[in-house]
Design goal:
The complex is a heterodimer. Chain A is α/β, with parallel strands linked by helices. Chain A has helices at 46-54, 80-86, 108-119, 124-137, 143-147, 156-168, 186-203, 214-220, 238-243, 248-256, 295-299, 316-327, and strands at residues 4-15, 18-30, 35-39, 61-70, 73-74, 91-94, 174-178, 206-211, 223-228, 231-237, 305-308, 311-313. Chain B is built from 11 helices and 12 strands. The chains are: A alpha/beta, B alpha/beta.
Chain lengths: 328, 329
């Protein structure tokens, strides 16, 4: 049994302009102690996938169908009571923006203790001790003093540490990190990523890392999911995705970032503009921007195909190649 | 990366200082030294990349060069003439323009694309009649890959990448020689970033532009720049050819900055020895004495606290401001 199993998840936002299918049939599994990366552009549905797991979608958002199982327990129809025992306790989330995720009117200590008091049966004194211990764990110096300070007295990197401390205070099995370092500078990003990695090893939790930065993925993740327009286009181990990409979108992404050994060659951008989720094409969502698109790509959506045991992709080109290989 | 052979300086910045007065009490103010004694030259047709963390003063440098802020001290020279009085400034503003970071807030939502692009032409009265203006706007839109049918639309109808194209067309309107690009791609998605970066490259080749390219993404800066300058707390700590600084950074800060770049290659990332700095960037209001980096530097000595190291040429145009640049390897 997997730690987390998401099956054919569909999440939509019902807006005045119509139904926006933000997540469109996403399935994946997360094993204990693994780091799973979800990459994609804005609007690809990576954050909505995470919010669906936590069931913290905004008003107009709703899980339409699909199943989310945590250690075999179904969460989609479980109800708020069950979710309260899961959220923060078993599955925690850190948000992108450390500046706005903390309440500016409460001390750091109070906010940390709130999470601990809510989810464990520690009393106030024990919660305080635990909060200080957590701050120390994430390398906040002078934690006793820091407990009494307000968020504005913390820098961005420090606030993100507090967010991590808060998320880890109840020893969750899964930590969802939604662009945890996007708002931070590179040197601070390096600090936070190192911290997350060492904590993950120490505490043995699984991480779902949501990011648009392929560099962060390469550094952190065991497995990678590439999303486009609400669907998974490719999924596999980090090495497979980076060294043998099998979906034209992934290939395009990798080509469009400057290489480590930059030789001054022109970048090869993906042409066109990101997709409008209200007007989804009939076939493959990426087909209108794909240089290698075939007739079938515009007509029909490609099913996910297993390339090898560590790698799957949903691209007609692989199907065509497999058929050719079969004939030969 | 056009014509490196031409070595005529176009923009010269000499001992530029920009201090902001910050209220620290009801009547007391304290100078915030956003840019403190920065000097550099940008040659014609060259791209100088400017990198550093938030709060290091890189954006302020760009804005002060264009005199969007009045410099506290120091000189800016453009094409052999010093910028200072009103007349030279008006001329300078036609030749030096800016592309802003945020394509959402830098375009007026009440103006059509044509009006936005024509605004600099209006201000500087660069056309004789409406038809001439219209033609120029359409020409500019063609440069940045927008269709003529986009002209009557409003900014909100465009995606981030297209908005940035509008901002670039506006910057090109006056036929400038020099453009300050302040994080022009950091708000864009990866797949769109490459389109815009290539466009900067092509426009430079076609129009012979000179760029000051401010960004925090080192891989992007290295790709587009001929030379790169690194800033820390208002000071320039290192400047060299792009590949040189990337492969052989000499200042301890540049080293950690470059090692902190997440490399999009799992095998390299696994072997990469990151130099993780402890602590945060100090507040520029309470900058440390001597070298600004000494509080986070792994190689700091007593001398570093005493005096600010000068930016010295170590040969081949590689400038470093570090007391221990020869000693540490």
């Amino acid at each position: 049994m997997s730690l987390l199993e998401v099956k054919d998840l569909h999440t939509s936002f019902f807006t005045d302009a119509g139904e926006v299918k933000a997540v469109n049939g996403v399935s994946f599994q997360l094993e204990e102690g693994k780091v799973l990366g979800i990459v994609g552009e804005s609007g690809s549905g990576k954050s909505v996938t995470a919010y669906s797991i936590m069931q913290i979608l905004a008003g107009a958002g709703k899980i339409v169908s699909g199943s989310i199982r945590f250690r075999g327990q179904e969460l989609v129809d479980a109800g708020e009571k069950v979710m309260k025992t899961i959220r923060g306790n078993k599955i925690s989330i850190i948000f992108q923006d450390p500046m706005t995720s903390l309440n500016p009117t409460y001390t750091i200590g109070k906010q940390l203790m709130e999470a601990i008091l809510l989810h464990t049966d520690r009393n106030k004194e024990q919660a305080r001790e635990r909060a200080i211990e957590m701050l120390r764990l994430v390398n906040v110096n002078e934690p006793e003093k820091r407990m009494k300070q307000y968020p504005y007295e913390f820098s961005g990197g420090m606030r993100q540490r507090v967010m991590i401390a808060m998320a880890l205070a109840c020893e969750p099995d899964i930590l969802i990190a939604d662009e945890p370092t996007t708002a931070l500078d590179v040197t601070i990003q390096a600090q936070i990523l190192e911290l997350m990695k060492s904590l993950q090893k120490e505490l043995g939790m699984a991480i779902i890392m949501i990011t648009h930065d392929l560099g962060v993925v390469a550094q952190m993740c065991d497995e990678v999911i590439v999303m486009y327009a609400g669907s998974i286009c490719e999924q596999g181990t980090a090495d497979e995705i980076f060294y043998h990409p099998c979906h034209e979108y992934t290939k395009g992404l990798l080509r469009s970032i400057p290489a480590v050994e930059d030789n001054g060659e022109k970048l090869q951008p993906i042409t066109g503009t990101p997709i409008d989720l209200l007007n989804m094409p009939k076939g493959c969502a990426f087909a209108p921007r794909c240089d290698a698109a075939m007739r079938i790509c515009l007509r029909e959506k490609c099913e996910r195909m297993q390339i090898n045991k560590d790698h799957a992709a949903a691209c007609w080109i692989n199907v065509a190649q497999a058929q050719k290989g079969g004939e030969a | 990366m056009a014509a490196k052979e031409q070595q005529t300086p176009l923009v010269e910045v000499k001992h530029l200082k920009q201090y902001f007065d910050i209220n620290v009490g009801m009547f007391a103010t304290k100078p915030l030294k956003a840019v403190d004694d920065v000097s550099f030259t940008i040659n014609k047709g060259e791209t100088l990349g400017l990198v550093g963390e938030s709060g290091c003063g890189k954006t302020t440098v760009g804005r002060t060069i264009l005199h969007l802020y009045k410099p506290t001290a120091g000189e800016v020279w453009y094409d052999g003439a010093q910028i200072g009085d009103k007349r030279s400034l008006a001329e300078f503003r036609k030749k030096a323009t800016m592309v802003f970071q945020d394509p959402y807030s830098s375009l007026n939502p009440r103006m059509t694309v044509a009006d936005i692009i024509a605004e600099p032409l209006d201000i500087h009265k660069m056309y004789a009649n409406a038809q001439e203006c219209r033609d120029r706007v359409l020409e500019l839109m063609g440069y940045v890959g927008l269709n003529s049918e986009h002209a009557s639309r409003y900014a909100h109808e465009f995606s981030g990448g297209q908005r940035q194209r509008i901002g670039i067309a506006r910057a090109l309107a006056l036929n400038p020689g020099f453009i300050v690009c302040d994080e022009p791609v950091s708000a864009l998605d990866v797949s769109i970033q490459a389109q815009v970066i290539n466009m900067f490259d092509e426009l430079q080749e076609k129009l012979g532009l000179t760029y000051l390219f401010i960004a925090h993404d080192l891989l992007v800066v290295r790709h587009i720049s001929d030379r790169i300058a690194v800033m820390y707390l208002g000071h320039m700590v290192e400047m060299a050819e792009a590949d040189e600084i990337y492969n052989h950074p000499l200042h301890p800060y540049s080293r950690s900055l470059i090692s902190a770049v997440p490399v999009p290659d799992p095998k390299v990332a696994r072997e990469n020895k990151r130099i993780v700095l402890s602590g945060d960037i100090p507040s520029p209001l309470n900058a440390p004495s001597g070298c600004p980096f000494r509080t986070r530097c792994p190689h700091t000595t007593e001398k570093c606290a005493e005096s600010m190291p000068e930016l010295k040429d170590l040969g081949g145009g590689h400038f470093v401001a570090c007391h221990r640049s020869g000693e540490i390897d």
